[in-house]
Amino acid sequence: MPNSTRQPAFTAGAPVAAGPAVTAAGPAVTAPGPAVTAPGPAVTAPGDETDPRWWMAPLAATVVAPLLSFLMAVWADLFTALPVFLIGGFVLPLALVVPGWCLARTRRRRQARIDLATLACCLAVAYPALIGGIGVAVFVVMLLTGNIHS
Questions:
Q1: CA distance 127 to 92
Q2: Rounded Cα gap, residues 12 and 4, in angstroms
Q3: Chain-centre distance of CA 139, in angstroms?
Q4: Number of H helices, E strands in the chain
Q5: pLDDT tens digit sequence for 28-79
Q6: Which residues of 67-102 are buried (b: 16+ CB within 10 A; e: fewer)?
Q7: Which one-letter DSSP state was computed for residue 148?
Q8: Residue 64 exposed, middle or buried by CB count within 10 Å (0-12, 13-18, 19+)
Q9: What's the pTM?
Q10: Angle (nearest 5°) at CA 84 between 80 and 87
């Protein structure tokens, strides 16, 4: 005698063999009486479950990246030398953090959020060197092309 309390097994995309009015996905099959859908949780791929701490990496980078930008600007004395270029030091790292807030909140996307947060903090630290490198490159190109006159 079969066990009547046992739930029928089902796989992703395959209909459940529990009766004519039961389906695993899609619209309910029309049959006499109310339509019934498959019991149990929806079948998903591994890693698609929600990440309860999805906000940790974007929040940490949102707080730490501007702080690192400020500390590096003080260390490189950019407040007196190049105050106009400080805007990029604060905006560019935060622009890298924004996609971390917008990614799907699943465990599969956790590493992408952590990578974006790490990249934003690295950019905040390297920004003064980046500005200096770009300045030297522009100077050398202008010198070699004859655009600097005495």
A1: 9
A2: 23
A3: 37
A4: 4, 2
A5: 555 565 555 555 555 477 778 888 889 899 999 999 999 998 898 888 887 7
A6: ebbbebbeebebeeebeebbeebbebbbebbeebbe
A7: -
A8: middle
A9: 0.61
A10: 115
